[in-house]
Design a protein that fits this description.
single chain; 272 residues; alpha/beta; 6 strands; 48% helix; elongated
């Protein structure tokens, strides 16, 4: 009986030690976990030590939850090796979404001291109800205006459904696909090509029908040969009346210079 009591005490003591150890581990790890989950990404949240490019998050319109912003940061990190990356949302009044995207890039991403400028931002403009991709430098050589329009044409439906995280994720996934040298679907481009081909075929058929169905017109030589013309000039009298002078100054050329600094990239967007 005494041995059983001693054994129970030992087991109870061992369990107490284990519970204390687990509690201590939770206390030590809880600040890190809380920081990862509760801190809302805002501003410069990541900088690549090798390239110096950075990742910017500015959800000023509060469209995404904290957990969604953390997930979006992970989605965007793969792009930072190609240039600085930014996600912006706004509900302020501005002259245009494209101008706002340009100015946001210049304010937060443009690096005047960088020898190789490169960056792209995705903007959700709640005031204008537009989404817009603006790129500059090295990335702009890949994410061209045409591709920016293609991507936003593909994802605007998510913004229309208020699924802003899915919208942003699809944008950055598509950009990463292009920057890695792979291709993305371009349904609008294919549809436009089909439409142009059909229109061209109709035009060619019309011209052929028009060409072969009309009556043959006489040639210019035949028309001139059929005209009977008689010319007669009698008693020609030429008289000088007056002479006038007109001043025509030489036009002077002027060269205009570019004004202001800032990025000179481009982009495209879509309303939602």
């Amino acid at each position: 009986m005494h041995n059983k009591i001693s054994l129970l005490k030992n087991v109870s003591g061992l369990l107490s030690v284990c519970l204390l150890a687990v509690f201590c581990l939770l206390l030590v790890s809880s600040p890190v976990m809380a920081e990862d989950i509760l801190e809302r990404p805002d501003g410069t949240v990541y900088t690549d030590e090798t390239t110096g490019y950075k990742l910017e998050i500015h959800d000023d319109a509060s469209l995404l939850e904290d957990t969604q912003l953390h997930a979006l940061v992970k989605d965007m990190k793969g792009l930072v090796k190609y240039g600085s990356i930014g996600f912006f949302t706004t509900n302020i009044e501005y002259r245009s979404t494209s101008a706002l995207a340009h100015d946001l890039y210049d304010k937060y991403l443009w690096n005047q001291s960088s020898a190789e400028e490169s960056g792209t931002i995705f903007l959700i403009d709640m005031e204008q109800r537009n989404i817009y991709i603006y790129s500059n430098g090295v990335i702009y050589k890949t994410i061209t205006n045409a591709y920016a329009n293609t991507i936003t044409d593909k994802v605007y439906k998510y913004a229309s459904d208020a699924d802003y995280y899915r919208c942003a994720k699809e944008v950055f996934d598509s950009e990463l696909t292009l920057l890695e040298g792979r291709k993305i679907a371009q349904p609008m481009k294919y549809a436009s090509n089909i439409f142009l081909a059909a229109a061209l075929a109709i035009l060619i058929n019309y011209l052929l029908v028009k060409l072969f169905s009309r009556a043959k017109s006489p040639s210019e030589a035949e028309m001139l040969a059929s005209i009977a013309a008689t010319q007669r000039m009698n008693n020609i009298n030429v008289q000088f009346e007056r002479e006038s002078k007109t001043y025509s100054p030489r036009s002077s050329s002027s060269s205009g210079g570019g004004g202001g600094g800032g990025s000179s990239g481009g982009g495209g967007g879509h309303s939602f």
